[in-house]
Predict the 3D structure of the following.
Amino acid sequence: QVQLVESGGGLVHPGGSLRLSCVASGFRVDYYALGWFRQAPGKEREGVSCIRETDGSTYYTDPVKGRFTISRDDATNTVYLQMSNLRPEDTATYYCATCTVVATDVYYGIEYRGNGALVTVSS
């Protein structure tokens, strides 16, 4: 059974930090790029970041560049998203997912996705 289980969400003040973790099971993580997308209430889904399985190259959406860092540990089937200098506009449910890179575009959740972790940035 394929599972992606996120943890680490919560409430944080603007300027604060959080680290999201996602543990995958039921499939070979070293065969897939892994990443995160988010969805805020009333807004469309937005791809956040993706890390490739081949060479570890990373992709970030412009609003999070310089603030978020994605990493992966295939030995523990885990992908992380370190989020710093958080802003109220980062408030969303964050989903762990497989991602697919096609030229300069990144697609999230085509194969697998988790149930999400809520991140709220508020004073």
